[in-house]
Write a structure and sequence with these properties.
This protein is an alpha+beta fold. The chain has two domains: 161 residues, 2-Layer Sandwich (Nucleotidyltransferase, domain 5), CATH 3.30.420.40; 238 residues, ATPase, nucleotide binding domain (Nucleotidyltransferase, domain 5, 2-Layer Sandwich), CATH 3.30.420.40. It is 37% helix and 19% strand. Helix 9 packs across helix 16, helix 10 runs antiparallel to helix 14 and helix 14 packs across helix 18. The termini are far apart.
Amino acid sequence: MRPVLLSIDVGTHSLRSAFVSLEGRVLAHNEEPLLIWKTASTMEFCSENIWEALVTSVNRLVSEHPLNQEDIKGIGIDTTYSLVLLDQQMQPVHLPGSNRADTFGWMDSRASQQAAVITREYPGLFGYAGSGINARSNCSKLLWLFQCAPETWQAATCILDLYDYVTWKLTACLTRTPDSTSHIFTKDAAAQLNMDIEERFKGKSLEIAAAIGDGLCKSAADQLNLKQGIPVSTGIVDAYGGTLATILADNHQGSQQPLDCITRRVSFIGGISSNYVAFSRDMLTCDGTDGPYPSVLEGYWLIYARQTAAGAFIDHIITSHPAYSSIHDISVSLGIGVHEYLNQILYELAGNNRSEYAEGVSKLTAHLHMLPYFDAPEVDQPQRGMITGLTLDKSHQSLAVLYLASIQALALDARYQLEKLKKAGYHVELLIPTGGLAKNQLLLTEHINILNIPAAIPEEKENMLLSGAITGSVAADIYDSIEDAIRAMSRYQERIEPNRQLVDFYQAKYDTFIKMLKDQQSWE
């Protein structure tokens, strides 16, 4: 095998490791499940389980795809936005009520009261948080821990972002990046909240994609059956990493779009939650978004418009329907996923002709409309989920149409979010989709048509795994900068234009969406 980079992607339900070529092609990958404890307001992980899954995944990857140890040139990591608690001996500190979990998951919203207090009484306390801070912010969670679980707080003498935890396990070096919670939870913020937190943020501050210490340490190398000293990059949160892996993509290797093109693009990172990430030259703020943050692409700022439940929302609509069990059994017997089977039902309802998709499938929801806010609301987003147009139908077809309506609701909300970004001065001319949710062709088509902008489809289908490869390549001095690495490793294979014949239909759907939003707000 030729020289490769080892990319590690820690998701919500699974961890993946992959060998990626220096040109940005995923050559092989392995996936291992993760333990997760989830309620309506909590999400918890076990850091030791995450490390065990990483060891298992890398060992299986290496055993199934043997290579010379010298062929692995660098290691890069991205993880979810999660927070690990450790004690003075760097052992796990369990979250209240748990005997295994020591990690706040990204979707944990138990700190809603703390977020509301911060937003109301300390506006701007955490710098780049935008118009308000939400319950899923690590800063809110730490205030909750301080106020509501003092024994756990006292025991947790080391607090690490999950990606910083993983790099510590790989290198035996504690490090932080400018995006780590320690850099957002400033001394001033700690003083105003009367929290003794600074000593809990241990570690040397390094830039994103910097090489850590002497690379892979002996203990980790022995567990992973890899060579000691392989360069290891500082970590990055997955939405940011996925954005960098795709935002500068061109349609063939060697072409050079000007860097400024990123200010006319928006990255769509689709998964259990979704993020729409836009860039600007100036520090442009926008209500209801997260940021703007300084970017690793020098001279640019980036901002996040988030959907905290996207894939999770679609799955809720599907699994709560009376026909779900039957649909699930049939899809298993056919060897396909539930979403793919529902897509087939919709094509059949539309006349089984994908070339006539636009006229058939999209308009199946002409009298069915949704607001996708089924998740716990944000501080500055008090709306709830809503459906109008329901009937007593319990058939497979009715579930398929509800599934379509949920996809359209997410795309309509994305349009609502991007319209706000446009008013704030951002330019949105090209959609760059990535992530597991973006692999669904029907969902992607609905987004393109509803947003009414073209999309550039990445050449690499597992392009989220490019994130660690890009940062790992810079740490290994293969490329001089993240920009150089992106240009060498990121391409798109085709550009899909929106169907202009559906503009009027989707404008009517969007008008209805906005009316539902305003009506619900008036009821509050």
